[in-house]
Amino acid sequence: MRSIWKGAISFGLVTIPVKLYSATEQKDVAFHQVHREDGGRIKYKRVCTADGQEVSYSDIAKGFELPSGDMVVLTDEDFADLPLTTSRRIDVLQFSPAEQIDPIYFAKSYYLEPEAQGAKPYVLLRDALERSGQVAVVKVALRQRESLATLRVRDGVFVLETMLWPDEVRTAEFPFLDEDIDVRPQELKMAESLIETMVADFDPGEYKDTYREALQATIEAKIAGREVVAPEAPAEEAPAVDLMAALRASVEAAKKEREGRAPARKAAGGKAAEKAAGKGAGKAAKKADTSAEEEEKAPRKRAARRSA
Fold it and tell me: How far is 152 from 103, CA to CA, in rounded Å?
């Protein structure tokens, strides 16, 4: 990872110099637009719609279009004069329980690493925040845009999660919310039973991007000159007419799937126990060999002392 920003956490009278790193990365397969006939890269020209002339990067500015169609042109100097007071600071505004912040506000995650001189106050704030069970609500400016954000601790490191402003979150306005939809108690109980059947501890390692893997396999097959064989798509089941029957069938299917996974987990646990037992037996055997060797040497040592 490479640092993309340097600044400081401002916490009361304490300033903690930090470096910012992107905490996530996209694993999508990248493509270029090419000419189908010969694979040549496609290039685009920056052309002005007013005079039809090609424009260089140095002559490009940002424009805000008015409802009338007129354009207000803003230059780099205009942006430089804007009052971004937190341009190099992460200002702690308050501390709040994490459950009070709706995840819909979160935009992107970053890691914060302390500079050498800021390691001690960084660890102090980290430990205090972790023990409090709170998250810090902060304000920060990244890429010429001021954002709300939160600071929380993950694996001993501060994670800065930028947030959307309240007016950037759309209100869910759908017709069905105003309809009086009747849900029978039996249906609700069956749905709850399905949820209980599928409850499990979340392990992200159990999931993978099968589409990306298939796409990568297709590319590798093209490179090797092999014929690309598309995997068979699973048969789609027709939508069930009876909701109760569909829920009941889903519960049974979930139970069977869980029972099928149980032997694999048990076998994995058995192998771990067998491995641990093997290590224990090995240690015991080694200890027994050492004791026997010491007992064999003991008479020789006593005879040597008497003769001396």
Answer: 13
**Confidence band, pLDDT 50/70/90 cuts, at residue 274:** low
* β-pairing verdict for 134-142 and 89-97: antiparallel
Cβ-contact 92, 14 below 8 angstroms: no
Written as one letter, the residue type at 204 is P
CA dihedral in degrees (201, 205, 210, 211; nearest 10)?
A: 100
Distance in angstroms (rounded) separating the CA atoms of residues 121 and 47? 52
Residue 218: DSSP 8-state: H
147 CB neighbour count, 10 Å cutoff:
19
The HSE-up count of residue 274 (CA atoms within 13 Å, CB side) is 6
Closest CA relative to residue 215, chosen from 29, 34, 36: 29
Return d(Cα 260, Cα 271) in angstroms, integer.
Answer: 18
pLDDT (average), residues 114-142 = 94
Name which residue leads in pLDDT, 58 or 95: 95
Q: Using DSSP, state whether 41 is helix, strand or coil.
A: strand
CA 156 to chain CA mean position, Å: 16
The DSSP code for 34 is: B
Closest CA to 247 of 176, 180, 182, 192: 192
pLDDT tens, 26-56? Answer: 888 889 898 988 889 999 999 999 999 999 9
Token couple for 263: 């032997």
- Picking from 157, 89, 159, the residue whose alpha carbon sits closest to that of residue 127 is 157
Tokens of 48: 């002005």
H or E stretch including 134?
strand 134-142
